[in-house]
Write a structure and sequence with these properties.
Elements (H helix, E strand, L loop, with lengths): L23 H25 L9 H10 L9 H14 L6 H12 L7 E4 L5 E7 L2 H6 L3 H9 L7 E7 L11 E2 L3 E2 L12 E4 L3
Parallel strand pairs: 2-3
Antiparallel strand pairs: 1-2, 3-6, 4-5
Helix pairs in contact: 3-4
Amino acid sequence: MRHVNYDEPVKNLPDAFAKHKDSNNYKIIQIHKESVDKQLKVLQNMSDSFDIDKAYGATLDLWYGEKFILKRGLMNDEQYRICLKGKQMQNATDGSFTKLVKALAFVLRCSISDIHIVESETSNSIIVKDIPLATLLSAGFTTTQVLDIIKNLLAVNVSISEYGFTGTFEFGEVNDYDEDNGFADLDGNIGGYLGLMERMIL
């Protein structure tokens, strides 16, 4: 079976036909290709709109925002997406640790094993010992906004007594130090961020 070249369709013509970019054959076939590509892109965007992690722009507002009754306000797409997923999971949690962890994993797009929540000694409260920080930082969320998302997933009258976020900072066997930027990793790149542990006043 002859291989069909979809990326450069003009090459599917027999050698008897002109195929260079200035030829009419190339121009006509290229117009058709670009038209098909645009249609395929529209179809792909329509398919992506049913996936909240791929939807963007007005689709998030019109499809998901109205569905979950949540206005965007000044949030960018990534912030809005996380809040929408949090709103969506409010109806899927039953107050148990298991459902809470699954809900947070869905919202933060991380593994269930990355989230550690335990019962606090304080009555009707929990300790968020560890949740991934990278997704939240990339979205531009503040600690207060993160805690609000978690609180909305908790059962009524349950609060957070302590919380912790994982950082990426660590010491290696060999470190370079720059007084303006701090320590470098083993590859010589300056970077990393500290985690955070805080006790809340209930």
